[in-house]
Design a protein that fits this description.
- One of its GO terms (cellular component) is nucleus.
- It comes from Struthidea cinerea.
- One of its GO terms (molecular function) is zinc ion binding.
- It contains 5 helices and 29 strands.
- It is mainly beta and about 400 residues long.
- The chain has a 4-stranded antiparallel sheet, with no helix packed on it. Strands 7-8-9-10 form a 4-stranded antiparallel sheet, with no helix packed on it. Strands 11-12-13-14 form a 4-stranded antiparallel sheet, with no helix packed on it.
- β20 and β21 form a beta hairpin.
- The N terminus is likely disordered.
Length: about 400
Amino acid sequence: RRGGSDRSPQAGMAAEDEAELSLLECRVCFEPYGPDGQRRPLNLPCGHVLCRGCVGALAGAESRRLECPFCRRPCGLAETSDCRPLLQLLELLGPGGGGLASALGRSGGGAAAPAPAGLGLRLCLGGWGSLVNPTGVAACPGSGRLAVAHDGKKRIHVFGPSGFCLRRFGERGDAGNDIKYPLDVTVTSDGHVVVTDGGDCSVKAFDFEGRGVLAVREGFSLPWGLDATPKSEVILTDSEAGALYRLTADFQRGELKKCQMIRSRLVSPRAVAVCQTSGAVVVIEHLKARGPSKDSTRVKVFSAEMDLIGQMDSFGLNLVFPSRIYATAVAFDREGRVVVTDVCSQAVICLGKPEEFPIFNPLISHGLSYPVGLTYMANDSLVVLDSGDHSIKVYSS
């Protein structure tokens, strides 16, 4: 059953958000999107969508590079691409734009083809009108609930195991517990939702009722990815500082105990995951291009004592896979194997255990548009956050 297909109070709230978010308008110039010309919607590499006219204006006549106006990620004009889900929606609505409510009402996240290797799509949540440019997803170890960070009016959505949206919180705004721009989210074993906020370079924690319990604003340059350990500690990356931190707190009391840098001299680290059995930590570094070559990524795995035990960059992956790989999210499976999302092949790939690199095993190779988030649930279901069609896809064997 799709989470977006049930007529419920949550569906009514989503319908209200559809009108507020103006999904068919560029959020820079507020002009309606169109299928051609300057109004054609384009994806930036970060997942945000702008019209072609605004992309050109932000890039300028000579530089041909721009910064995303929402998350400030730099990119080149050649890295933009057509926003296919929005173009398909425009085609569905036709020249008059009729049927918007019914079209968005079917947005349970479009159907995806079954995955190979015994994995099949079990549940699809979100979609247009429910999630907007989602950036992070995490599973609660005990309850099976999923927390998703996105760019909507309320930044955090919590879904139950059956797909219902149970709660939405984290207002968009400038107040102390508001969230300016969420980059990633995790859920601790004691049931707290922790978010990295790129807007004010902070880390914020909430309980599952949406009450803010802690905000850490000092000491970070740009906190990005984060994941929780079995002891409810939080491992997080600072992309600009090139560092990895361990944050220890009493979330029940809202007290920060310690924030310790545990690794430095990393290159733009973003996504991070902690192995729940061994304590190993995997990080994705984003490497700047030299000369005409494109940017690439590197996967680094550290032991629980933060010793480097394995690494693999895009060049090495290309030796075992015939196309360029750009990893955006990472997780450990139950056996301690490293699993990454690749936006170039629109796939989820298992790289094996660190001592086995380079193993290449595609887990999902169909039905994804722009996968940016990855996590495993307690029942071993694989959860993929697809920013391309603003959905959460749950796969199981």
